[in-house]
Amino acid sequence: MTKVTVWNEYLHEKESETVAAVYPKGIHTCIKDFLTSDEVSVRTATLDMPACGLSEEILADTDVLIWWGHKGHERVPDEIVSRVQNAVLQGMGLIVLHSGHKSKIFMKLMGTPCDLLWRDNDRERVWCVNPAHPIAKGIPPYFELEHEEMYGEHFTIPTPDDVVFVGWFAGGEVFRSGCTFTRGMGKIFYFQPGHEEYPTYKNPFVQQIIKNAVEWAKPTAHLEKLACTHLEKPTESKN
Amino acid sequence: MTKVTVWNEYLHEKESETVAAVYPKGIHTCIKDFLTSDEVSVRTATLDMPACGLSEEILADTDVLIWWGHKGHERVPDEIVSRVQNAVLQGMGLIVLHSGHKSKIFMKLMGTPCDLLWRDNDRERVWCVNPAHPIAKGIPPYFELEHEEMYGEHFTIPTPDDVVFVGWFAGGEVFRSGCTFTRGMGKIFYFQPGHEEYPTYKNPFVQQIIKNAVEWAKPTAHLEKLACTHLEKPTESKN
Amino acid sequence: MTKVTVWNEYLHEKESETVAAVYPKGIHTCIKDFLTSDEVSVRTATLDMPACGLSEEILADTDVLIWWGHKGHERVPDEIVSRVQNAVLQGMGLIVLHSGHKSKIFMKLMGTPCDLLWRDNDRERVWCVNPAHPIAKGIPPYFELEHEEMYGEHFTIPTPDDVVFVGWFAGGEVFRSGCTFTRGMGKIFYFQPGHEEYPTYKNPFVQQIIKNAVEWAKPTAHLEKLACTHLEKPTESKN
Amino acid sequence: MTKVTVWNEYLHEKESETVAAVYPKGIHTCIKDFLTSDEVSVRTATLDMPACGLSEEILADTDVLIWWGHKGHERVPDEIVSRVQNAVLQGMGLIVLHSGHKSKIFMKLMGTPCDLLWRDNDRERVWCVNPAHPIAKGIPPYFELEHEEMYGEHFTIPTPDDVVFVGWFAGGEVFRSGCTFTRGMGKIFYFQPGHEEYPTYKNPFVQQIIKNAVEWAKPTAHLEKLACTHLEKPTESKN
Q1: What is the pLDDT of residue C238?
Q2: Which long-range contacts (C-beta less than 8 Å, at least 24 apart) are formed by D139-147?
Q3: Residues C53-80: what's their mean pLDDT?
Q4: Banded pLDDT at A224 (limits 50, 70, 90)
Q5: Is D174 in Cβ contact with A174 (below 8 Å)?
Q6: 3-class state of residue A72 by DSSP
Q7: In sequence order, which residues have a C-beta less than 8 Å from that of residue B94 and are 6 or more positions away?
Q8: A touches which chains (3+ CB pairs under 8 A)?
Q9: Would the CB atoms of A221 and C137 count as touching at under 8 Å?
Q10: Shortest Cα distance from D38 to chain C (angstroms)?
Q11: Which of C64, C220, C237 to probe the A interface (max A CBs under 10 A)?
């Protein structure tokens, strides 16, 4: 059983009728609903919970954390961000969605500001440029999102381990829309689609990609301790 | 003319006779001396200078910053670290030497703790695994360092853009001793040799590698502003 | 059920008593025996079979092909090599072992001669430099092979997608001992240990790595046709 | 002085009035004219010359080879292709333009069929996704090509070392338009723009990119011999 925690700041849905109409129970619940299966158990966590719903206990019991944030980035305490960073370094998978590119946790793990161009309300076609990647399993050569926020290059991220998807926007821009990274034992997937005003997370291909990413990002190894280790004796020493 | 600033915490040399005997004017002066040429001008900066010698003006006038630190990592103010990070993201090259793997600036740019195994006083053979890389220019298939501190895997860094050198240690360990990264417009090279008690920076191959790295890391582009950019109109719009 | 075909030239075992003493039924049978499980079915194929045991039908029924060859490289017909290459490009996984670095199929997929340094009868310590990779699952920071042929850098392969293991040799050399590549839909893993005179494939860590590699390399997508495709109409065209 | 050889099959220009009107002296001469400078000397070679103009002597005197081919791919003898491959492996830079993606030499160095989608006469916007790369020096965030052949994903190449440019096509497709690879000592740049019917090579940004690529691809090291090397004694042996 893979244990997923879906974190959502859960602000837009409570403040905007437009957003509430799309995601009446919040983006996190929408994601929880399509992810839950016999092999995947899902809990949710939000900004308004104690410790943002991300206690040490919860993180220790999480294989993959999914992150959706936008206007509340600054309201996530630094202590929680460091806790999540350590969990990733020790093996927890992390899937960062859409506007999460400017979350404290993503910028901290990348070491860069993760800036980009943006413009609201465009049409996107998501192309797969790495169909052999496990995250692309079952995804056609491209699929379309009738309404999506435009995110454009240059995206100031480190060189990704793999670029799986590239977005084409009708307005004339391109974006590395699906990128993987490794940090410590943790596997990270950034996926660009998912503006709060559009039903992106109801798209079957978007759902499939997030399911694939959960399967890909779940830990295969754990790092107990984050510290340098002093070797008393050479590895060659037999005594 | 390439402008280099060599930063050294400059502590060991003032506190230890052993180290002072190897680097009487400090590691920074040794590096400055072999780097200075008709094409390269070098200044030095140390922890005991105001703002660690790294004012906005100095960084704005620096093409490549070289960093040697060890016991004074914590004494570099966070404000200075952020200033250096921004300079790198905007284009300044950065060469991090030896124990600088645990400097605040390197960990911040990597997003990982950069931990490793270590053991004092071993013998290292540095193998080139990427001889086509510009940093390997003029370097033989391998060279030896009779005395060097052992740094061993697993080194918790992000996947490097390129691994140029791999260290072999007589005591039985290996290490990715020369690694490149890109962060924003900045090119970064981490190079493992250089323990303060040994004359590593007097080795002609080590000197050649650092010279090559300066040439490789100097900026080819600048980023004026670190921020997301809102496009008012689609790129396709003609008016 | 994952379907594996283990290909072995099967020459040394029939010609050398030393080798026959280590692998009395051939290297292929040894690998088949430890790989076979409820989830993995294994067949073997050898140079002396019609079409080297690699007919179109066999390849179409293979998820992952494992390749051991050495002195018989030139005896594999070019037609068979092209057939295997096409199967890999269309999605079949490929695991190339030890002296298979000079097989026609590996060189053809790499586009390089895959040369290296070598020396017989050394002692190797295999270090994991990418413990988050699925192929490293369950493998300790390092393990030892009391007897192994030395393979040393520079190994003239293209930049691997990932380097998972680095070998340390008592004689003073290092080697990128475990490397991954993607070619078309096919995932490829090269693994250096496995000289025919030593019981390397009886080592439990070597067995675990090959099991992991089979799981990692099995296809997640197929490419039906190898050819450029002419689009009659723009993707944007609605009619 | 960097020595460049521009190879062009030189068929379209002699057979089509449309193409001849754009490139009256051939694409090779157009490229030669904008590349030639005080630091770069350029010769040209074409399919109709003895040995395609690519004798051992010419290749030995070439730092960077530029390749334009399309309908004449099959007319380049395999012996010449192997000769060029060896020169690249030993250090010569190679820049493959546009329809050269299906040239024998590019497919041989990649190990893949390098297939793609295509459609004639579209409009392209070339975005820079790696502005820190030396090949992007002086190039704006994007530039436009009013007329260009559409090349679309999925492009069956190995994972590039770096993706520098991504093409946006008005018809709805994307393409990794500028990619780098290393093969042996040789640096390779594939650049998609350059259909023979359009004046792409007269575009100042295209010219700047090719100039940058020449500077980037020139050799920094040579490999004398392509073969495995037997070490008689361990590197650790002192006698």
Answers
A1: 73
A2: D139/D205, D139/D208, D139/D209, D139/D212, D140/D205, D141/A153, D141/A154, D142/B235, D142/D168, D143/D203, D143/D205, D145/D193, D145/D198, D145/D200, D145/D203, D145/D206, D147/D121, D147/D122, D147/D123, D147/D195, D147/D197, D147/D198
A3: 98
A4: confident
A5: yes
A6: coil
A7: B64, B65, B66, B67, B84, B88, B105, B109, B186, B187, B188, B189, B217
A8: B, C, D
A9: yes
A10: 33
A11: C220
Contact D142 B184 (CB under 8 A): no
Q: Which of C156, C184, C231 sits opposite D117 (nearest CB)?
A: C231
- Please tell me if residue C123 touches chain A, with a CB cutoff of 8 Å: no
Beta bridge pairs of residue C178: C165, C191
Tokens of D144: 């436009």
Average pLDDT over residues D89-111: 98
* Element counts in chain A: helices (H) and strands (E): 7, 10
Taking CA C145 as the corner, what is the angle to CA C167 and CA B143, rounded to the nearest 5 degrees? 30
Rounded to whole angstroms, how far apart are CA atoms D48 and D63?
A: 22
Distance from CA of D24 to the nearest CA of A (A): 33
| Whole-number average pLDDT of chain D | 97
* pLDDT at C86 > cutoff 90: yes
Contact by Cβ (8 Å): A110, A188: no
B234: left (phi > 0), else alpha (psi -120 to 50), else beta? Answer: beta
For C2, the token pair is 């994952």
Q: What is the pLDDT of residues D104-150, one digit of tens each?
A: 999 999 999 999 999 999 999 999 999 999 999 999 999 999 999 99
Question: Residue A195 — very low, low, confident or very high, per pLDDT cuts 50/70/90?
Answer: very high
- Give the model confidence (pLDDT) of A8-25 as tens digits: 999 999 999 999 999 999
- Contact C159/D at CB under 8 A: yes
Element (H, E) at C43: strand C40-46
pLDDT tens string B153-201: 999 999 999 999 999 999 999 999 999 999 999 999 999 999 999 999 9
Contact A134/C at CB under 8 A: yes
Smallest Cβ distance to D228: which of C116, C158, C161? C116
Which residues of B, range 50-69, sit inside 8 Å of A by Cβ? Answer: none
In angstroms, the separation between the Cα of residue B67 and the nearest Cα of chain A is 17
pLDDT surpasses 70 at A239: no
- Residues A33-92 pLDDT 10s: 999 999 999 999 999 999 999 999 999 999 999 999 999 999 999 999 999 999 999 999
Residues C178/C165, Cβ–Cβ less than 8 Å: yes
Residues B228-238: pLDDT tens digits? 999 999 999 97
* Tokens at D23, concatenated: 């490139």
pLDDT band of residue C207 (cuts 50, 70, 90) is very high
- For residues A103 and A96, the answer to whether their CB atoms sit within 8 Å is yes
Question: Mean pLDDT across chain A, nearest whole number?
Answer: 97
pLDDT at B239: 61
Decide: pTM greater than 0.90.
Answer: yes
Is residue B84 a contact partner of residue B64, using CB atoms and an 8 Å limit?
no
Q: Which amino acid is at A190?
A: Y
Q: Are B168 and B75 in contact (CB under 8 A)?
A: no
Cα distances (angstroms) measured from residue D7 to each of A118, D11, D22, D204: 42, 12, 18, 21
Whether C159 sits inside 8 A of D173 (CB atoms) is no
* D131 contacts chain B (CB < 8 A): yes
Which of C112, C159, C171 is nearest residue D234 as measured by Cβ atoms?
C171
| Chains within contact range of chain C (3+ C-beta pairs < 8 Å) | A, B, D
**C171·D236 Cβ contact <8 A:** yes
Which residues 163-192 of A have a C-beta within 8 angstroms of B?
A: 169-173, 181-184
- Comparing CA positions, the residue from C13, C91, C2 lying closest to residue C46 is C13
Which of chain D's residues have a Cβ under 8 Å away from the Cβ of B235?
Answer: 125, 142
Chain D positions touching C232 (Cβ under 8 A) are 119
The one-letter amino acid at A167: G
